[in-house]
Structures are given as structure tokens and as C-alpha cells.
Amino acid sequence: MKQVYIAVLGFGTVGYGVYQVLRQNGDMIAHREGLKISIKRILVKDFVNEPNYDKAPKELFVTGMDEIMADPEINIVVECMGGIEPARTCILQALDAGKSVVTSNKEVISKHWYTFDAAARRTGAGLYIEATVGGGIPLIRALTDGLQASRIDRIMGIINGTTNFILTKMSEEGLAFEDVLREAQANGFAEANPAADVEGYDACYKLSILSSLAFHTHIPVATIYREGITRLTVADFEIAKQLGYEIKLLAIGKKTESDKMLVETRVHPTMLKKTHPLASIRGSFNAVFLHGNTVDDVMLYGRGAGQLPTASAVLGDVIYACHHEGAHPQVTFRNIPDTDSGTVVLKDWDSIYCIRLRVADRPGVLSSIAGVFANHNVSLKTVLQSAESDEDKTKHIAKITFITHMARELSVQAALKDLVNLECTESIDGLIRVEE
After folding, report:
1. Does the chain have fewer CB atoms within 10 Å around its N or its C terminus?
2. What is the Cα–Cα distance from 183 to 202, expressed in whole angstroms?
3. 339 belongs to a structural domain
């Protein structure tokens, strides 16, 4: 039986979850893996304000990295603090000292992965990141240890549980975004400041990691198109249902190869046909849909966040690190700060679009609007129209929804700018991209 000592940095949701899982499953891990994993130190900011300080033996807690760095028995450091600092500094300290690092911190990995990778290569330490994406779903391991023989050319994923919970409620109960957000916050599904989730930042961090591994080239967070869910309305969901779609916040990555690798990476609300496997993912669950040239379609589904699922992924990495001691795997693409010279991240891509307008209800309006789209090579597939009157009954207004054929992103955006300037246009009420 091999004794393994680890240090846990941060004792919040995930850090305390690691402690709980070891208490619950430690004997099973020892029996199955031949490893007795023990937490020797827990790093916290201070003892007074640490909410979980009374949930573990007091002698485990420290407030600085010195004691952890000086202990030769601690070979693995588990970082669960979140955010950039002090997590970045602590990870680098551990790697520079030759201690392997397991982390659940998607933001720091997505922004400083190249720095950590270089440090790990210098010292021979391991860097393990399974818990950064998908909670308890083994997404990273699937890409690095299962699908290496397939050329992955497409990723579509629901990788943020908070937004999927909100969108499920809006779809099934017809509620407004603000009302569901308050409910999500009250039930602990959303933070007091929910911007990282509802504005799509969290999904961008995760897509950066997934697409870099899947496409074998570094995809910086800054190159990913991002649009959150805060502008979605009840009307968007009504139209989606009428047309046979569900609305999901999708992280999308697509790759084609010519003289250079052409990649599109984007996070935004997306309409999916109800028959698509991702359309049925409800509540706070996550799922990632992959396509490879030899495996065709693969979907991984499960709890994408939460204390115990994420802690399970963390300890899975600890076990993996123990079994690969002395031969730590590192990424095999050029892990650099920017995009590789052989990779082009596209700002203009092909998609189908659902566009909602409010316009004056009079003859010739539809023809004028269709003309604007035609001028920008945007072909219309479906048109839905209904009439309404404004509040003082002096104007007759038509609500029109267009579904386009496949069109270019920049062409659609240019068409919308021209539509705003039409005298007949009252407002552009929505634009949602469609994947089929």
C-alpha cells in the first residue's frame, strides 16, 4: 500500500468536497488502487473567516505556502481556490518545486496554461486539469486518453449548469430571465454576482481548454466569440417552441484544414432542433457532443458542477498522477500565449439565424426587408408574421420572425445595421443562431 500525502489549497465548495470524498471513499480507493491518500495540509486565507474551519482537524490548516513547499512528503498540491490570484502564484510555486498540481480552476488554466505547462516541463512535475471542465464528466480524459486516434473537428457543449438551469425554467415554465435568476440564486444554483455564468465567461474558459485539446492548438480565451443569455425573453422561447426548437447556451468549436487550420469558437444562445441530443439536457446537467472522423458522434453527459462531482474529478486526477509518477503527461501542442501561426480563428462563420423584428404593418414592408437581406447575400427560409397595435392604438405593428438559410455572420450583422435604418423598422427584438 502506497501512502500519498496531498495539500489542498482552498477549503470552500470543492476543497471541502475533496475532504468529504476521501472520508467516504478513502478505503475503497485504497483497496482498488493500492493508494492511501491523506490530506496533510489545507491552505486557507485565515482561520477566523474560514466557513469550513471546524469541519477538519485544526492541525491540518495553514495560512501560507511555506510549510507546504518545505514538506518533502507532499508530492501533490490540489488547487481549489478559483480565480487568478493567489491561485496562479501558488500553482507556479508548486510546479517550480517539482510538486505535481491538480486543479479545478478553469479561469486560471485558460489564461495561464502556457506558463504552467512550461514550469511543469522544466521540473518534471505533473499538471492535471480534468476537474476544470464538466465537473464529474471525464471530458479531458476522453480527449487525451481515449480519442487520440480520431481527428476531432466539432465540439458542441452545454458546459455551464447555471445557465442551463435558467434556460430550462424559462422554456418549461414560461418565466422571464430575471425571475428565474432570482430563483436560481435563492436555491444556490447561481452566485450573488452571476455575471461569469450568465454572460458566458465561464463557458468561454472551458471552451478554450476543450478546443485547445480537441484541435491540438492553443485557442486563447480572447479569440472566442461570447454572448450571454441576459437578453433572452419569453418571446424568444415562444417562437422557438412554435418552430420546434429548444434554446441552449452552447459552446461551439469547429475546425477545418486547408493551408492553415481554420477554427471557429463561440459561446452564445443557440436554437437546437428538439430531436438533437443536446436539446434534451435539462436543469443543471452538462453534456458535450463531439464529432471525429473515425468515431463519428460521441456525447458525454452528467453533473457538470457541484461539490462532490467536481471533487470526484479532482481525486481521479490525484489517482492518475500517482499511477504515472515519473512519466507525467504534458500537452503535445505548442502551448504558447497567443494563437499558433498555423491556426486562424475565424471571426466570420456560417450559421442559420432566427431574427425577430417589429415593423410598421403596411404594404411593401416585407419586400423592403427582404431586399436588405438580399443585398447582403442572406437568403430567407421561413417567415412568420403576426399583427399588433401599439399602446395608444395609433400605429399598426407587425411582428416578423425570419429563419435564414445558411449565411455568413458578418453579412447578417451588416444586414441588421441596414434594417435599423429603414423607416419602417420599429425595433430588432432578437437574433439567435441556429444549429441543426
Report:
1. N
2. 20
3. no
